[in-house]
Amino acid sequence: MQKGPKIAIATTAVMVLLVGVRVGLIYRANHEAAPVRKNPYADVPVDPDDNVFLRKKYPDSLADQRSLIGQTLWVSAGGQMTYYTDKGNRVDYAKPVGDLPGATPLLIKGVFEQKAPASGPAVFRIPAGERQVLLAFTLPSSSSPSTLYATPVGDFENGSYNFVNDQVFFYDDPHKLYSFWGPAMWSTIDKHQAVLGMSENQAMMSLGEVTTPDSDNPGNRTVVFNNDGHPISIVFVNNKAVKITPLTVAGQTASHPAG
């Protein structure tokens, strides 16, 4: 065979081989299972607390507030709501009873408006506005379940009402919303104590939301809880309390001991 035809035959054979390989690769690509992409969030831990549904009512009128009469609300903003003795749709702003603890049930009895001082503790969290709106309530779980109290939940200013109900109340029993915390933890929270192993959220429910953290890394930081004037320092690691220290104020240690 002459050299020219031999080269042509060899070239043709190589081309056929390359085409065959190409066809084989295409067939393999079309028939192999696609690679499974890993979910980038699969290994991110999810706090069960974040999955709890908290109802909102978005009140914007006195009628919305009056619709709460006869209902039970629970305090979510522990240590942030100052309350007073209700003296017949009137309170003495100079004589607060205290600040409502977290998870406290309130049986709503009425709604009224009152002009508040222009400045001072009474308007630290709720603006004075032209007048404040207060909810009257009893404390069924207290030693005086029939005593009537009241706390401001909003103000009237420039022709409109502004309310904080959704930010300070649970509309459902938190003991049921967070039932997975377990009876032992809830017993500690209802006594407003701290216990090793509790999370930051549990500590806030127990000791209140007036806090001073040492960083912006929730679950891994030291937090000082005001605890109604009896401060407690808690060190959290992986969102578990690992060290609880009552702090000294004016020569006195905290009267609420760690559990």
Sheet bearing the most strands, described?
A: 8 strands, antiparallel
- Spans where pLDDT lies below 50 across 5 or more residues: 253-259
Total strand segments = 14
| Secondary-structure element series | HHEEEEEEEHEHHHEEEEEE
Report Rg: 32 Å
Beta-strand percent range: 25-35%
Helix fraction by DSSP (H/I, runs of at least 4)? 10-25%
As for the number of domains, it is 2
The dominant shape is globular
Give the count of helical stretches: 6
Give short descriptive properties of this protein:
Beta-lactamase Inhibitory Protein, Chain:B, domain 1, about 25% strand, four-stranded antiparallel sheet, 14 strands, about 260 residues, alpha+beta
Describe the structure.
The protein has 259 residues and is α+β, with helices and mostly antiparallel strands. The protein has 2 domains: 51-170, no CATH class; 183-253, Beta-lactamase Inhibitory Protein, Chain:B, domain 1. 22% of the residues lie in helices and 26% in strands. It contains 6 helices and 14 strands. The strands form 3 sheets. Strands 1, 2, 3, 4, 5, 6, 7 and 8 form an 8-stranded antiparallel β-sheet that branches. A hairpin with a 2-residue loop joins strand 6 (149-157) and strand 7 (160-163). Helix 5 packs parallel to helix 6 (200-207). The N and C termini lie far apart (101 Å).
Secondary structure blueprint with pairings:
Elements: H1 3-31, H2 62-66, E1 72-75, E2 82-85, E3 98-99, E4 105-114, E5 131-138, E6 149-157, E7 160-163, H3 165-168, E8 169-170, H4 174-177, H5 183-190, H6 200-207, E9 211-213, E10 221-225, E11 232-237, E12 240-246, E13 248-249, E14 252-253
Helix pairs in contact: 5-6
